[in-house]
Structures are given as C-alpha cells and as structure tokens.
Amino acid sequence: MHGSALSGWLLVAVCAATGAYCVLRLRSRCERARSAAGGEAVMGFGMAAMAVPAAFATPPPWLPGVYAAVFAAVALRAGWLVRAHGRGAGGHHHLHHAVGALAMVYMALAMTGSGDHAHEGHTGPAGGIPLLTGVLVVYYVGYVLTTGVRLVPAAGPARDGAAAGAPGWGARPELALACRLSMGMAMLAMLLAL
Predict the structure, then answer these.
(1) Burial 16-26, CB ≥16 within 10 A → b, else e
(2) Contact between 20 and 31 (Cβ < 8 Å)
C-alpha cells in the first residue's frame, strides 16, 4: 500500500483485531453465525497481511499469487453458500463475502501487475483498472453507510441487558456489525490506495 507506514500499520491493527474477534464468534451456537464468522476471520487476517507496509518487509514475488488463490477459494465458498441460502438474509451476507473476496483477488492481482515492484503495484497505473476500482469503491461506500446506519440504536424502552438474558459479548449482533463496518472501511481504504 502506498502512503505512510502509520496508516498501513493502523489498517493491519484494525483488520487483525477484527479477525481475532471473528475467531471468538466461531463459538456461536448458530451454524449460520459460525459460518459468517469464519469467512470474516479469513478476510480480516488476509486483509491485515496484505496491508503490511512494504517498507517493513519486501514480500516475495509469489506472495500476491498466494493471496489471489486463498481469496479465490473464499469467493468460491461464499458463492456456494449464496446458492445454498438463496435470497434470504444469509444469502445476501454471503454474497457480500463473495464480492469482498473477489475484490481481494483483484487487489492481489494488481500487486503483481507492476512486474519488478510487486508490493508497490498499488501505486502506478498498473495498480488496477480505474473503472473496476471505482465500482468497488462505490459498492463499499454504500456498504459502509448502510452498515453504519444499522448500528444506530432504535428508539425504544431501555432494557437491562442482564435481566433480558442478553448474549455474551462474543455473540452480540451489534459487535458483529461493528466488525463488518470496520472491515468495510478497511477495504475502502485499501481500494482508495490502489
């Protein structure tokens, strides 16, 4: 990623923390929630790895190909889950995972597009196709805004979480939304740096 090393490390921290929280969410009793958490954990850790500043460590030339292969597998799995869940809420969420994984494949391939400057592929014209990058940026701006709106609390009577039998902090839906929001913003930052 071009830009300051500080912004790269902040992206690494946000994505790694999100991935770690998603690993904790794998203990959910709901199979659909576990499935989503697993995909989000892979995305979070993968995004963290791709965001490591090039000044810290020069990646080997084969690394972008590995990223592309891993995220292509994630996209195939998400596509399979979209097909299995249909048009329900789970299907829409898995469709978002497929779009995100394909965006990561795109960015990994853009890293290889500049030949000798593998990790610096985010900077020059070889860094990506402007129209495709623009479409992905528009998609993620919309995703971040709609996810952010869903985090705004609804007006209603206040409840005592303990008395109402609220789930543990690892299974709270608002924390899962916050993770998705932070990964969406990180993806947006990575696309803008492309």
Answers:
(1) bebbebbbebe
(2) no
CA angle 37, 41, 46 (to 5 degrees): 150
Q: Which residues contact 88 (CB under 8 A, 6 or more apart)?
A: none
Report helix, strand or coil for 90.
Answer: helix
| 2-38 pLDDT tens trace | 557 888 899 999 999 999 999 988 887 777 777 788 8
Domain extent, residue 94, equals 5-152+167-192
- Tally the domains of the chain: 1
Kindly state the tokens that stand for 57: 């460590």
Task: Note the pTM of the prediction, 2 decimals.
Answer: 0.80
d(CA 43, CA 61): 21
How far, in Å, CA of 68 to CA of 103, rounded? 10
Closest CA to 174 of 154, 157, 145, 158: 154
